[in-house]
Amino acid sequence: DLKKYILAIESSCDDTSAAVLCNAKVLSNVVATQEIHKQYGGVVPELASRAHQQNIVPVVHQALAKANIDKKQLSAIAFTRGPGLMGSLLVGTSFAKSLALGLDIPLIEVNHMEAHILAHFITDENGTSPSFPFLGMTISGGHTQIVKVSDHFTMEVLGETLDDAVGEAFDKSAKLMGLPYPGGPLVDKYAKLGNPYAYDFPKPKVDGLNFSFSGLKTSILYFLQRETQKNPNFVAENINDICASVQHTILEILMEKLNIAVEQTGIKEVAIGGGVAANSGIRARLKEAEDTLGWKTYIPKFEYCTDNAAMIGIVGYLKFEKGQFTDQRVAAKARYAI
Ligand code: KG4
Ligand code: ZN
């Protein structure tokens, strides 16, 4: 049988996810999001691993049921080995190892950052995949990275954040404005109604293709403190303009680096992923770059942008085809470069 059925497990941060793929096609992709972190305004690692422990079995059962696949039909188990929170990774890693051992089928380790990029190769009804070589940019609450992708397994990190991830920049700015966590989607929503040039925030000076977002957060903090001293209702009265200006600054930083990457490499195939790829502003800027600069840009379906097991499954399938299996002695790896 040429059909490979891969069960994939993702547990690197605060989403417990399981997916079943038949070759490059997703049959199911179940995600249990952990609501517990909302009240803390950010992910609490200890609580995340406990929630994974509770969620993993029901999530895997649901993924198999939705795919209408019996576990005896599975060809292999793919799992996220890293990077991520150690306690969270341990849950998925141990579960995947045990199940593979019990079913006597191969185990396949997956790097979470490679998976964000290879999510573009999931076969969907109308999706088109980038052609090699292409630039991948992963932008989320945990990551900000530009990668040159020469083929499925030849990737080179060209630049990444030196401090906060871009999603954190959105969320922390939103928090300073009193918006609930995660504030990124709300900043996007209000930004649509505001003037992106209303306020000026400094852009960081970072060499090459690396990013820095912690300075922006600090300058927004001082700006808001100064303005609310003069007018206690400043934020409420100007929320649209503040959001539009903050978002504009963040997008300028992202697009400036992408532009440099395109110029340096001569590659105009640009593939974006991660939760921040949902942002309407970045989507508009990419569209503009297609029209004015001749780029070809790609964004996967949103459920394959945020943390999900389907993207782990596509890497699992590609590795299966190459016979790249993993020994049972494998251990989770919190820091794990591409
Ligand atoms: O990929 P993701 O679900 O989780 C990880 O961080 O791995 O990304 C979540 C991040 C959050 O920071 C959230 O605020 C941000 O993506 N985000 C957005 C938007 N939708 C989600 N940021 C800006 N605009 C959006 N529309
Ligand atoms: Zn991620």
What do you see in this structure?
- Its main location: cytoplasm.
- Residues 25-313 form the Gcp-like domain.
- This protein is an alpha/beta fold.
- The chain has two domains: 5-121 and 304-321, ATPase, nucleotide binding domain (Nucleotidyltransferase, domain 5, 2-Layer Sandwich); 134-300, Nucleotidyltransferase, domain 5 (2-Layer Sandwich).
- The chain is built from nine helices and ten strands.
- It has helices at 45-67, 86-103, 112-118, 166-176, 184-191, 214-230, 234-265, 280-293, 310-321; strands at 5-10, 15-22, 25-33, 76-82, 107-111, 134-139, 144-151, 154-160, 269-273, 296-298.
- The strands form two sheets. It has a five-stranded mixed sheet with strand order 3-2-1-4-5, with helices on both faces. Strands 8-7-6-9-10 form a five-stranded mixed sheet, sandwiched between helices.
- The radius of gyration is 20 Å and the shape is globular.
- The model has no long low-confidence stretch (mean pLDDT 96).
Strand sequence of the main sheet, in spatial order?
A: 3-2-1-4-5
The helix count comes to 9
Bulk shape: globular
**Number of spatially distinct domains:** 2
Helices and strands: which structural class?
A: alpha/beta
Low-pLDDT segments, ≥5 res:
none
Provide the residue-averaged pLDDT: 96
**Any idea of the CATH topology of the largest domain?**
Nucleotidyltransferase, domain 5
Question: SSE string, helix = H, strand = E?
Answer: EEEHEHEHEEEHHHHEHEH
Radius of gyration: 20 Å
- As a percent range, the share of strand residues is 15-25%
CATH superfamily of the largest domain: ATPase, nucleotide binding domain
Binding site for Fe cation: 112, 116, 307
GO biological process, one term: tRNA threonylcarbamoyladenosine modification
Binding site for substrate: 138-142, 171, 184, 188, 279
Enzyme class: transferase
